[in-house]
Every structure is written in C-alpha cells, then in structure tokens.
Specification:
Layout: E1 2-3, E2 8-13, E3 18-24, E4 41-45, E5 51-55, E6 69-76, E7 81-88, E8 101-104, E9 110-114, E10 124-128, E11 134-139
Antiparallel strand pairs: 1-2, 2-3, 4-5, 5-6, 6-7, 8-9, 9-10, 10-11
C-alpha cells in the first residue's frame, strides 16, 4: 500500500489486516536521507524483489526538495534496512509535483513519466538504460497533462500495410 501524502509504503498482512512494516519517512527501515522518497507515485515490486517508484519530491516543510526522479529501492526485512540501488534524475532537474510513473521495460530500460498539468510546460517522457543514460526523450506540448505512460510495442486497432 502506498500513501503519497505520508511519504510511506506499507506491507500489510492480508490474513490479519495488520501492518507488517512501514517504509518511508519516519518508518521502520533505516534508510539514508538521500535515498528517501517523497510524495511517491506508482510503486511496483520488480522481479528481483526491489521496489521501483516515481519520487515526486516536495516543497512543503520540513522536506523541501523541488526535483523529481525515478528510484529503485532494495530493502531487507531481516535487518530493517533499505537503500537506493538505482535512480535517474534528469539534468536539468524536472519537478513533477503532481504526477509521475516509472516502469521497468522488458529490455531492462526504464520509462519515466514526469507528468505536468500546466499552461506553460509539457510533460516529459524519458526512457533510460540500466546505466541511467537517456535513450529517448519526448516533451509534450503545454497543457498536455500526462499522468502515466506505457510502452506499446505493437500497434493497437489498425494494421500497417505496404502499398
């Protein structure tokens, strides 16, 4: 369970409805300050057991950080420690305070949505490789609010034919 406003992710025991642990701000895991996430979106558990999420950042006190990133966190339930093992932060920074997504693709790359809803700025869709190097980047026109994006490898709804 992810609670964006509390900067928390929870592991819930579905049999007892009890919280097993909290990962995030003032949670149960020891985690370095630079590895903490704020106002996260779209966490997903990867095949290796790590958590990939979009870390929005925050401008409210006391957690001021006005930039966003994709973040992969490894955690250990025995030692109750967590650490960022991979991240992507664009240069220059993008602050996507409202929306965002990060998806690990079948080829090992990560598709990241820096979503915006603005009359002056577009959303940024960025694909990066395992070394956090950009391989593709698209900026939508202003007012095109993109919440999340997914890669679709095959066309949907039409057939491409040669003439």
């Amino acid at each position: 369970l992810s609670s964006r406003e509390q900067h928390h992710m929870y592991k819930i025991d579905r049999d007892t409805d009890q919280i097993d642990w909290i990962l995030g701000l003032n949670g149960d895991f020891e985690i370095d300050e630079q590895d903490r996430f704020m106002r996260q979106h779209a966490p997903e558990i990867l095949p290796n057991g790590n958590i990939l999420l979009f870390d929005n950042g925050d401008t409210r006190e006391p957690n001021v950080r006005q930039w966003s990133r994709a973040l992969e966190i490894a955690y250990n339930e025995n030692t109750m420690t967590a650490e960022a093992v991979w991240s992507f932060r664009p240069d220059p920074d993008i602050y996507s305070w409202l929306w965002g997504d990060a998806d690990r693709l079948a080829n090992g790359n990560t598709l990241i949505t820096f979503g915006m809803r603005s009359s002056t700025a577009g959303s940024n869709l960025i694909e990066v490789n395992a070394n956090a190097q950009e391989v593709w980047h698209m900026v939508t026109p202003a007012k095109w609010g993109i919440y999340r994006a997914d890669r679709i490898d095959e066309p949907i709804g039409y057939v491409i034919s040669e003439r």
